[in-house]
Every structure is written in structure tokens, then in C-alpha cells.
């Protein structure tokens, strides 16, 4: 009885102190044994293949104790390239043989336990690599060795001995099966251990054998029945095996028109209906399968993440990467808007899984930004691509966010190179949408915005310092103008008082208002000639937006008065039959427009519009009478000088519109004087001064009502001009088609057309050289 109590006490003591460690070591040992068994099976299969290809190994005269370096060349090559381990040869095996059976087992257990402890340490440092059979990066060399003969060797065999190659193809096709989908093979093993198994589950070997039989052979035709079967399996049971086959077929669809003899595709697709079915099935159901097996979780802080340290994620990582790479490849071939939208939408649920694959994610960002910034893309495709970028800014870390911001800005700059009536709407959509991205992480947004504005300032400084013929072209181009306008949109979006009140703190981006205004004003005055009046109006609109959104005073009246006092506006205009110049799609006036009545009228309209928009920003300010007085005096002086000119050369339209603006400004000044005569606070009371007429809508002031009416008139005129432009383009296309049809009937039409185009190019080049000479003279 005492003995049993003693044993029970020792057993409890052992359970408390040593049982847990022993169980863990046994588990690790079991895993090691399992891996060793798999390795032995592979070596046996390789030995069988070597015996089949080379015949049975002949006995050698090599002694057991000799090393690999002492073997002859013939003996070495007859050994089947088996690596000889020096630790297992010679005298080192004798002590183990001399030990008893129990001592040998205890020593082997100690070695196994030491090995298991070291592997446990590795697993903690390398994120459970031992538990994952899908990590191909750490074992690429072993996997390549286990594959047997390479594909190039088989191709050489087909050339040298076609009869033997034909014999292999008929009797052992597996020897010629080089599947490029090897990274997805482990999905079958994982699917065999999931809930896909039936209630009457068969043994694992039989099930794997059945799965192999169901897999089609290489170069088989993909049918709608196969796609429907995979679709039903994924929809009902979230089958990983069906998902694997779908991803392989989807990759074949992405590389449909590519002929690659080295890596032939698993399936061939000849029916467009099959192509459509596999495309829709993959885009709709693969994200659902991933969400079922690897659910996306959200932390308490609102951060979205996926558990990447699990074996299931490492096994499915090959499927995720292959599927994403196929989508990226597919995006380069699609042109249909609904299909393109569906493909881009399929990326949103994949983004949490791709945060661990940085290279693939950067490629994805680059592809999505290209669609977002491409002028040929439709508005729907651009918005869908932007939603992908926005989703990344929400869930990603700082590194990915920085990549998104830099790629977005680069795409905007590249996409705004060509600006005309057809692309201006898409460029404005890009600027307004991308401005939102800089508000998700304002510290990172400040860093990227500061670097970009600084780069713009460096370009401006180089153009001023290096005063050469073409130095100003680094600043006077559409990309520079749109960049200034874009940063105006960003600061207007995130530095407004309403946004700061919602956030409860001042925006970090507000510090960039001053440098951006200085760079913009410097670019505006780089070449103050009439040729670049349209650019001046472009950047003034940007600064007006910034001033309106941030309640920041920016002195712009002087820049507009310079335009009125320029030589272009003082000299008598020439009559012309040119169409009115569109100042929204031009930063440079053509030479033919200079000193014409059409150009003078257009410049006068722009000056009046921008002056009224500038003064209406401060129409409720208590200091408006004093603020507007210097400008009113200058405008009246200009009107007085214009009346002294002869009646025939006077621009009556501009003078009458300018007089109306002066009257509205004076009426607004009188309105403010009447309101502030009733106040009972001093100018030093800043809170009361700032709150003066804040409750009054700006449209109810005399100047505000005038601006509202002018906006409506300009909008109506813009619509009429747009309709007329579309009619002209339609007529021009019809005329071109008729002329083309007529030229097809005539001989030598192509040569005449080429000669005419060459002459037109020479005339355009001469006009360009003359305009550049005139610019140099005016700048001097």
C-alpha cells in the first residue's frame, strides 16, 4: 500500500513538472518523423525514377569506409547523385552499434529532444515555419531536387531520342508532367483536412487518389460544365480544391493570347462563353472562399487584419498571390467597362490578405493608379480604381500609405500632361478625389506634400536663376499648373475651419499654405506677358479656392490690375473672326489671338470675373470699405484713361462691365458702413470683429447678389459653347469620313495627304519659332 501511494505521489509530481514538456517533445518528434517519412517516400520515388531511366545500379567495389572524394568518376556517376554525409560513414557508426538497445533508444531520444528544442526556437523566431508546408522560399532547393529531371532535360531527350520520349509519354506520362501550379498543390492537402469531407469519409489516400483522377491533364479544353461544377462546389461548401482549379483556369484566361512554349498553360480556352464564365466565377467566388477559410478580423482600434501566422494562411498564400497576379494581368487586357469595374471591385476584399506581400502590393498599386490616371478610362473605372486606393489608405500601415500617396501624385502628374476639352473633366475628377487621400494620415500627408511643394519651388528657382531661352518651360507647362492646383485642392479639403472643428485640432497641413501661395505667386509672375495671361488666370483660380476654404487673405487684386494696365489692353484692338479663346483649357494664348478684340474681350471678362470672386470673399468683412478703396480708385483711373481714346478704338463692352463692377463694390462698401455704424464694440475686440455679419449669407450682400447672377449667365454661356463645340466636332468627323471615302477611290491620295501634312507641320514649326522669338524679346 505504501508503495502504491509513493508511486501515485511520484506520478503527480512528474505530471506537474515534466509531463507538459514531454508531450510537446513528442509532438515535435512526431512531426519530424512525419517529415522524414515524406522525405523517404520522395527519395524512394526518385530512386525508382533513376532506376527506370538509367537501369539498375551496378555493384561497386567501393569500401564502406571510403569517402566521396576517394570514389572513381564512374562509381560516382553510377551512384545516382546521392549526397554522402561524412557524419554517417566510417567509425562514427561503431559506438552506436556497440551500445545496448535501451541505451541506443535513450540516446536517440535525447538527440531528438535536443533537435526538437532547437526547432521550437526556430519556429518562434521564424513564425512557425516548421508547421507550414507551404513556405517555398525556405525550401526551394530541396523541392527542386525532389522534382527529378528538369523540363529542359526532357526537351533535350525528345530531340535526341524521340522514340524513347514517345514511350515515356504513353507508359509514364507523370514523368513528363511539369506542372507550373506546384505552389498550389498544397491546397489539395489542406482541403482534404477541412470540412469539405463527406459524412462517410474515405481514407485519405483514396481521397487523394480520387482527386488526382478528377484533375484534368495538361492542355485540356476548359468547358462550361467544369466551370459550373467548380462554381457550385465553391458556393455550397467553399471548396478549396475547386478554388485551386478555378485560380489555375483564371490564370490561363489571363494569359489567353500569349504563346509560351516553356510554360504551357493547364487549360486551353476557345469558347468566349467559357472565358466569360471563368472570369465571373473567379472574381465573385474566390474572395468568398478566402473569407470563409481566412476571415478578415477587426481589432478594437478599428484596424483590419488577417492572421498570417497560421498554417492555413501560409498554405493559401500561393493561391492568393497567383489569383492577384492574374487579376493584374487581366486588367491590362480588358476594355469593357462593366467587366473592368467587376475586376477592380474584386480587389477590395483581397487587400487585407495582400498586406504581407509588399512586392505584389506595389505592383497592384501601380496598376490601379494607371487606370485611375489614364485619360482613356471612363469615369466609372476611375472611381472604382480610386475606391481601391482609398481602401488601402484605410487598412494599411505607413509604408503602404506612403507608396499609395506617391504613386497617386505621380499618376496625377503623368495623367495631366495632355489637357483639352476631352480630358479636363477627368483631370478635375482626379484632383478632387486624390485630395481626400492626404487626410487619412496627416503627418504622412504633410511629409509628402512638403516634399512635392519643395520640388515645385526648386523648379521655379532654377527657372529664375538659369535665365535661358527654355528655362521657363520647366514651370510653364500643364503638369506644373495642375500640380499647383492639386495642392490647392488638398489644403482646401483638409484645412477648412469646419474640418478643424470636427477634428478638434488644427490641421498639420495648414503650415503648407504659406509656401504654396509663395510658389504660386512666383510662377504667375515669372513671365508677365500677354502670351501667358491664361496661365495667370488658372493659378489665380487655385488661390481663390484656397482663400475661400481656409479663410486666408491672399493679395490677388494687384495681379489682376497688372493685366488691365498691360500694353495688350491699352493698345487699340484689331478686328478678327477668331472664336473666343477657352481660358480653362489653355495656359498659353496662340500668337494669332494677340492684340485682337476677341482676346481683349476674353481677358476683360476673366479680370471682371476674378475680381468679383475675390471681393465677394470679403463682402461681409467689417473692413471691406477700406479694403476695396485702392482697387476702386485704380479701376476708375483705368476707365477714365480709356474714355480719352478715340471712339472707334474704345472697347465699350469691357468698359461698361468694369463700370458695373465698380458700382457693385461701392454699393457693398456702403452696405457695410451702414451695418458697422450700429455696432458697440471697438476694433481691438477681435472676437466681435470676426463675428461681424457671420450669420448673414454672402449672397444677400449687394456684391454677392451680383456674383450669383454673373455665375448663372456664365454657366448658360458655357453650356451653349459646349453644345456648339460638340456640333462642330460631329460635323468635322462627318466631313473627314466623307473625305476619307473619297480619297479611297482616288489613286495617290495617301501621298498627297502626307505632303499636305508635312507642309502644315512646317508652317506650325515656323509659327512656333516666331512665337518663341517674340517671347524672348518681351521677356528681355
Question: Which labels suit this protein?
Answer:
nucleus, Noc2p family-domain-containing protein, two-stranded parallel sheet, mainly alpha, ARM-type_fold, two-stranded antiparallel sheet, Noc2, 32 helices, 66% helix, 780 residues
Overview of this structure, please?
This protein has 780 residues and is mainly α. The protein contains 32 helices and four strands. It has helices at residues 2-54, 73-78, 94-98, 101-125, 140-146, 151-160, 162-171, 186-192, 204-214, 224-237, 240-254, 272-293, 311-331, 337-345, 351-354, 358-373, 379-395, 398-415, 424-434, 442-465, 478-494, 497-503, 513-524, 533-550, 557-564, 567-570, 597-616, 624-643, 652-676, 686-690, 702-745, 749-779; strands spanning 220-221, 267-268, 297-298, 304-305. Strands 1-2 form a two-stranded parallel sheet. A two-stranded antiparallel sheet has the order 3-4. β3 and β4 form a beta hairpin. The protein is elongated, with a radius of gyration of 39 Å. It starts with a helix and ends with a helix. The model is unreliable at 58-149, 194-219 and 749-757 (pLDDT under 50).
State the total count of DSSP E strands: 4
Segments where pLDDT lies below 50 for 5+ residues? 58-149, 194-219, 749-757
Radius of gyration in whole Å, from Cα? 39 Å
- Major beta-sheet overview: 2 strands, parallel
Distance between the termini: 117 Å
Lateral arrangement of strands in the main beta sheet = 1-2
Q: Which band does the percent of strand residues land in?
A: under 5%
Percent range for helical residues? 55-70%
Q: What form results from the Cα inertia axes?
A: elongated
Helix run count = 32
Mean model confidence by pLDDT? 78
Structural class: mainly alpha
